[in-house]
Write a structure and sequence with these properties.
The complex is a heterodimer of chains A (112) and B (112). Chain A has 112 residues and is mainly beta. Chain A is 0% helix and 54% strand. Chain A is globular. The model of chain A has no long low-confidence stretch (mean pLDDT 95). Classes of the chains: A mainly beta (112), B mainly beta (112). At the A-B interface, strand 4 and strand 5 of A face strand 5 and strand 10 of B.
Chain lengths: 112, 112
Amino acid sequence: GENVEQHPSTLSVQEGDSAVIKCTYSDSASNYFPWYKQELGKRPQLIIDIRSNVGEKKDQRIAVTLNKTAKHFSLHITETQPEDSAVYFCAASKEGWGKLQFGAGTQVVVTP
Amino acid sequence: DAMVIQNPRYQVTQFGKPVTLSCSQTLNHNVMYWYQQKSSQAPKLLFHYYDKDFNNEADTPDNFQSRRPNTSFCFLDIRSPGLGDAAMYLCATSRNRGNEQYFGPGTRLTVT
């Protein structure tokens, strides 16, 4: 089955700096890669996703890149703000498959 | 405008006493999922329904059951809760398998 590894497990950044979280996946058939942000005690919220037919997607301060050959994808947050502090989960899935395989999560702390 | 609703938000049950958690959705999505999330861990898929078709994960204990009486509602039944079942239970929906999943706010289950 699919296995998703996520690094780092914790990330501390100064406000205004960039943050990068990396994930690798094992199943070359996976074609959908969402990123979720989860604040303490709240639901996971989809912040951005990418499908395997594109290599990069951007939404304001967040971007995701996908390298299908290497089977890895990354989340980039620029100009970080204290409200970006949360746990971020990457995940992988494939069309017709009812399962999101999550990475272990990255605790991001943005210090003012 | 709540799209995925879970009730109750907090549930306390006694060891061995059956408990039912509820999820409803206004999105008319075909797929509904139940996840278990323990502290500092990624959500773990228990099972999902694609329409009326039930799909159990191989490692989901028999203690966990689910019902989906119609498109809008899905229930999680825990027949004999143990202390290890204390967790956040998240319901999610998606239009089809492999599409974006939208999470409900979760039910925090405490077992005494």
